[in-house]
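Table S2 (continued). Query chain:
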Amino acid sequence: MSKNKNDCIENIEFKKEFFNQIKYIENNISVSQDSSFISSVIFISNYTEVSFQHMMNYNRRYPIGIFEKDKEVWLKWYEDNKCKNIQLKKSYLIPERYKEIFEY
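Corresponding output:
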């Protein structure tokens, strides 16, 4: 058991940013899904899965039920990968539907 713990190299900077982005999405999903919100979703999508297909609804919003399911996937992804010294990316892939809004 201690061998696994000693082998874990967790990037605390990444962890802080990853969870800050999740918290931002969580705090704003029912308030304002503006460009800052979408930026957080794009950040997460560059590391783990985001259900963008469900955001193609008539009002282009991220349904809270889908977010809650995605969040479970994100947290599991983090737990599965946290010991791999995950690095923050210098640039992010932007889903086609948001390219006109964002250029990182």
